[in-house]
Amino acid sequence: MPPGRGLLPATWSELYKVATERLDGDRRVARWLVEDASGGDWPAVLGEPVTARTGEFFLSMLERRLAGEPVQYVLGHWAFRHLDLMVDPRVLIPRPETEVVVEVALAELRRSASEAPIVVDLGTGSGAIALSVATEAPSSSVWGTDRSVAALSVASANLAGIGARAAGRVRLVHGHWWSALPADLRGNVDLVVTNPPYVSEAELVQLAPEVRDWEPMSALVPGPSGLEAITAIVQGALSWLRPDGVLVCELAPHQAQAAAALALASGFGAVEVRPDLAGRDRALVARLHAP
To answer: Domain boundaries in the chain?
Structure first.
């Protein structure tokens, strides 16, 4: 058990040592908890005294992490590209693989002839993709959709958090995939970028417990095969994209061949799959016309 609430160590250095021990030597997480609870700069904060309020907060976070809750939810925020996003169990935890997907999408925008591109993020969750595109491609207008009202609340908080960097250029709308979008966007979208659920029901048991037991199931598993959401997105994209539009869709490496074949069969003119930082197939890039 962590130290009793009436027996708090005198300094953050001592509390850091206690947390490291309790976390089986995980110094990174122990440091993150200290930084978040103390509000101080590392390592200067280590010599400072622990107040009753900040100590209690630290211990509550430590207990949550020891119970298996993902550290991102314990902290309540997580870095994604150039943003620090609010995250909690209403949304998926932003991951490095999705950062690569955003980079692929931004590269496609740089190739676009549109001076004010319209971008759609289907299944926006925390807003990580939509807000990254809006802040890193300042000429863009971005729509983020989600069928989860709870997820949209998180995305709205994150939109408010980035303020003027995206004010007036991001709209968050409720609905399932394409049905959330207004009809006047049909045929006018320059880029669709999405991280849909793509875990099959059979694969669910293989996920780490802190993913399977904590992250929203609807954002992980779309159905028995894992391809249900990707199929709906790919097949619907053709009627929403401009003639030179592009779809960028995150997927699991073993789905790359099937997703690419689906995009070609649906009518896309050029299809490729880009790797993530580990060299694994990760982003389907489907263009209506060959470049």
So the answer is: 12-67, 89-287
Dmax over CA atoms of the chain, in Å, equals 67
78 neighbors 263 (Cβ within 8 angstroms): no
Residues β-bridged to residue 151: none
Q: Are 118 and 185 in contact (CB under 8 A)?
A: yes
What secondary structure does DSSP assign to 236-270, as a single string?
A: HHHHHEEEEEEEEEE--GGGHHHHHHHHHHHT-SE
CB contact set of 187 (below 8 Å; sequence gap of 6+)? 239, 240, 241, 242
How many helices and strands, by DSSP H and E, does the chain display? 10, 9
CB 271 within 8 A of CB 216: no
Averages of pLDDT over runs of 10 residues in the chain (291 residues) are 55 94 97 95 93 93 97 98 97 97 97 93 98 96 98 97 87 97 97 98 95 97 97 97 96 98 97 96 92 58
d(CA 288, CA 96): 27
Which parts of the chain are beta strand (E)? 77-80, 83-86, 118-122, 141-146, 170-174, 189-194, 241-250, 270-275, 281-287
CATH architecture group of domain 89-287: 3-Layer(aba) Sandwich (3.40)
Pairing of strands 241-250, 189-194: parallel
Count the Cβ atoms, other than its own, within 10 Å of residue 282: 22
Prediction pTM value? 0.93
Whether 125 and 194 have beta carbons less than 8 Å apart is answered as: no
